[in-house]
Each structure stands twice: as structure tokens, then as C-alpha cells.
């Protein structure tokens, strides 16, 4: 189907990029799995964290679509998925307005999470929204200066998993509108559980940057792949993958976790298939499906990891 044949509704779906939502849901799933294990699971805060993460992801997608177009990063040579602003499917002001409305909705929902988690959640929420805009917009776009990987690792990995755990723990261990971080609401294991999600989320961006390296170099988008080349990006991918699959082994060494924490290792063959493709290919024709496979890998890994984390004893 050509871009001219797309309806306005279809164009908005493309702009929202629902295929990226596993990257938003995965850290919430893992944080909730650990909360179940530790006996601090709380359904309403977990649900609010899930919806809020989805809104921030969609808002970031709108921001990327808008700012990449107005800054000239999306050209006719683009090999990635359709961008509605650059493609003329939706006018830039409408996309920009949708971005602000989506972020506003996430902030509105966040008022409940602030009630539960207090000032720490207020700070995290505002930083997440600001970083979502600053990824491709503002005076120093993170994605244009090789900082996109850091943004994804921190906000779609560490902050999202730990924040999900925190709001559930705080709902039972702290008074509403707490100012500090109550004891027991951010254990070390929550940070360590976030590492594989952070690593695999970053690898989604690595695949994207390998695919777009040549175009990004001509439009001034200085990703790590552009700055240091394909070899660096592929080594980064392998390092992130190693971190992701080493984490369950560490948890197995902890006495309160069962062998089920190794469930994510079942996804290794799928990860190996993705790796072989990335090490050999650079074209959008091949890497666009690979990008979607990375999203599925992140989702499958996160669900299996959450199940493994949540179980305190095997009943047989």
C-alpha cells in the first residue's frame, strides 16, 4: 500500500508505532514479577505504571516523528518504517500537538503514582517526559549526539523496572506523598533485575542505528554507529546480549530464587538468529524485520523472567 492510499486513522497508528509497546510493557512486567516474589505486589499501581509507560512510549514516538522531520533527519532515502510527518501524511503541528497531549495524559495519570510514591515518582515522571522530548528535540537532541543508547538503557530499563517495583512497594510500606525513598522500596535486586531489560531495549536501538547508519551520517545524526562504525555497534550488541543472559544466572545463585529464574535462557536460539543477521546485514529490507524480532525477543524474555522471578518455590 502506498502512502497516498493510507487513511488518516492508519497514519496516526503508524505515528504511534504500536509495535514498540513491548519495550514499554516489558520493564513493568519484570518489575511486577519481582514485586510478587517479595510480597509487595499491588495491582492498581502496577496497572498505572503499565499505562503510563505506554503513554510515554507513544509520546516519544510522536516526538521522534516530528523532530526528525523538522530537523531533516528523515529523507527520501530512509530505509526504516514510514514516518508520517516527513511523508506528508499528517501535518507537523498536528503531530506536535499529539505529542504534548500524550505526555500530558501520562502526567495526569502520574498524579496517582505520585500520591502512592511521593516526590521520587514526581521527579522520575518529569525526567522521563523531558527526556522523551529531548531524545530528538530541544537544543541538544540526545539521539543526535550518541546519547540515545544511554537514554534507552536508563529510562526504558533501569528507571522503568525499578520505578514499577518502587510504586508497588511504596503503596504498602510508605505513607502517601512521601518525600524520601522509604526503606525496602528499592532493593539491589530490583536494579539487577532491570539490567537485562535495559540491555535488550538498548539492542533494539542498536539494530535501528545499524540500519540507519548511512542516512544518519548524511543528515548529521551522530549515533554511536555513525561515530564509531558497524564494528563498534555490533560489539555493543553482543555485550548487551551477554549482560541480558548472564543476569538470570546471577539470580539463580540467590537462595530465595528457584531454577525457574533461568526460563529466559529458552529465548537464546531466537537471540542467536537475530545476532547472525545483525552481524552480516545492514540493509533496511533485512533489518526492518529484525527490528520487530528484537521487540518480540524483549517481550518473550521479560515475560519468562517475570515468571521465574515471581516463583519462590517449585511445588513438586
Question: If you had to describe this structure to a student in words, what would you say it looks like?
Answer:
The chain is mainly α. It has one domain: Farnesyl Diphosphate Synthase (Orthogonal Bundle). It is 70% helix and 0% strand. It has twelve helices and no strands. The protein has helices spanning 8-16, 21-37, 43-70, 92-117, 119-134, 148-173, 188-211, 213-219, 224-228, 230-252, 268-280, 284-310. α3 runs parallel beside α5 (119-134) and α6 runs antiparallel to α7.
Proportion in β-strands:
under 5%
* Mean pLDDT, all residues: 90
Number of domains: 1
CATH top level label: Mainly Alpha
Q: What's the shape?
A: globular
Task: Encode the helix/strand succession as letters.
Answer: HHHHHHHHHHHH
Rg result: 20 Å
Keywords:
single chain; 12 helices; 70% helix; Farnesyl Diphosphate Synthase; mainly alpha; 316 residues
Question: Can you give me a brief rundown of this structure?
Answer:
Helices cover 70% and strands 0% of the residues. The chain is mostly helical. It has a single domain, classed as Farnesyl Diphosphate Synthase, CATH 1.10.600.
List the helices and strands and how they pair.
Blueprint: H1 8-16, H2 21-37, H3 43-70, H4 92-117, H5 119-134, H6 148-173, H7 188-211, H8 213-219, H9 224-228, H10 230-252, H11 268-280, H12 284-310
Amino acid at each position: 500500500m502506498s502512502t497516498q492510499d493510507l487513511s488518516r486513522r492508519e497514519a496516526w497508528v503508524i505515528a504511534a508505532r504500536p509495535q514498540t509497546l513491548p519495550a514499554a510493557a516489558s520493564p513493568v512486567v519484570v518489575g511486577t514479577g519481582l514485586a510478587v516474589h517479595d510480597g509487595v505486589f499491588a495491582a492498581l499501581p502496577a496497572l498505572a505504571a503499565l499505562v503510563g509507560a505506554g503513554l510515554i512510549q507513544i509520546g516519544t514516538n510522536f516526538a521522534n516523528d516530528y523532530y526528525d522531520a523538522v530537523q531533516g533527519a528523515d529523507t527520501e532515502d530512509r530505509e526504516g518504517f514510514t514516518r508520517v510527518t516527513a511523508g506528508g501524511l499528517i501535518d507537523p503541528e498536528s503531530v506536535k500537538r499529539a505529542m504534548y497531549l500524550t505526555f500530558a495524559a501520562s502526567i495526569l495519570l502520574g498524579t496517582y503514582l505520585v500520591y502512592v510514591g511521593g516526590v521520587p515518582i514526581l521527579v522520575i515522571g518529569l525526567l522521563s517526559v523531558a527526556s522523551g522530548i529531548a531524545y530528538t528535540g530541544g537544543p541538544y537532541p540526545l539521539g543526535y549526539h550518541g546519547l540515545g543508547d544511554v537514554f534507552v538503557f536508563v529510562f526504558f530499563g533501569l528507571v522503568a523496572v525499578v520505578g514499577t517495583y518502587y510504586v508497588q512497594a511504596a503503596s504498602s510500606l510508605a505513607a502517601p506523598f512521601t518525600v524520601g525513598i522509604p526503606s525496602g522500596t528499592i532493593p539491589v535486586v530490583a536494579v539487577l533485575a532491570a539490567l537485562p531489560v535495559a540491555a535488550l531495549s538498548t539492542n533494539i536501538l542498536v539494530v535501528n542505528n545499524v540500519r540507519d547508519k548511512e542516512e544518519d551520517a548524511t543528515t548529521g545524526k551522530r549515533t554511536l554507529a555513525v561515530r564509531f562504525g558497524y564494528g563498534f555497534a555490533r560489539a555493543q550488541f553482543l555485550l548487551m546480549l551477554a549482560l541480558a543472559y548472564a543476569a538470570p544466572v546471577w539470580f539463580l545463585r540467590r537462595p530465595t530464587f528457584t531454577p525457574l529464574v533461568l526460563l529466559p535462557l529458552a529465548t537464546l536460539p531466537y537471540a542467536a538468529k537475530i545476532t547472525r543477521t545483525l552481524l552480516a546485514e545492514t540493509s533496511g529490507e533485512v533489518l526492518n524485520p529484525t527490528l520487530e524480532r528484537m521487540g518480540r525477543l524483549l517481550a518473550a524474555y521479560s515475560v519468562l523472567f517475570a515468571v521465574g522471578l515471581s516463583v519462590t518455590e517449585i511445588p513438586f
